[in-house]
Amino acid sequence: MGTVERNETGAAGLAARYQDYFDIGAAVNLTTIKSQRDLLAQHYNSITAENDMKFERLQPEEGHYTFEAADRIAAFAEEHGMKLRGHTLVWHNQTPEWVFKGKDGQTAGRELLLSRMKFHIDRVVGRYKGRAYAWDVVNEVIEDKSDIWLRSSPWLDILGEDFIAEAFRCAHEADPEAVLFYNDYNESDPVKRDKIIRLLRSLKEKDVPVHGMGMQGHWNLNGPSLEEIRAAIEGYASLGLQVQITELDISVFDFEDRRTGLVRPTAEMEEKQSERYDAVFRLLREYKDVITAVTFWGAADDYTWLNDFPVRGRKNWPFVFDEKHEPKSSFWRIADWEE
Ligand code: GLA
Description:
By secondary structure, the chain is an alpha/beta fold. The protein has 12 helices and 9 strands.
């Protein structure tokens, strides 16, 4: 059996339990680094800024950089001996409108947008050089609908598909040591997976410095299937990339389930969730040679973006620690296993 004691709050902690496997990370913000401080320090050895390193937070107006929040998160990581993942440089969401506008208010031209992209990446990656060991360079450029490859966005529409390669080149130049990721959701869906692989393969063929695939891992009790997750990990790893689960949460609701009004998860949900965590982590441990980190998109059930998404105001309980930061049965299933 595992080395953690059941009567203590996970004793040595989850990250210590996984030291021979992969890092255990959590997404944080300025509230949770206080409200979840002890839990984070005990169980996680890596953090990602949930929002504070996104374009709109770091450069809300052209040339006006606001690094205070991101700096505090970087300092929190240093203070606790945690690794820091940078998230995220080029994305169609949470990017201010000015980025895509020219001086005349019209759509920005190619040269202008490209120089803004490069300038932003250079400044941001440069600032956290040696502190953020990895970056999600490009986020979510693959279209979910099956007959389209790349998602329409101002980045794609103005720059054409080469902006993806340029973003990676630029990040690599700014910090040649940083591990550079492409990051996406629905990453285990076979159709989307193959489109992602097509993108990553084309980047590798052009010698673009891409080093890892970030599988976001916004999963639920029923999907994706273990077979799909396995095939996705194998597909991405077959390109010679390292793999991380970058935003793991296991919602107790299926995406289509729009029920409201539950004040606590049902016993059945808890049971299914712990079985699911058990099965998922068994699978992830099998791939410890290619998986370098598993980051949860939060740390405990008192705070999760899923409390509002996709149903506004609805509570969700996606993690392995409960609202009081106590380990759930899901925690014991992933912390305590037969070798
Ligand atoms: C995507 C992004 C994350 C976050 C989630 C929702 O997965 O990569 O930064 O915004 O959506 O919380």
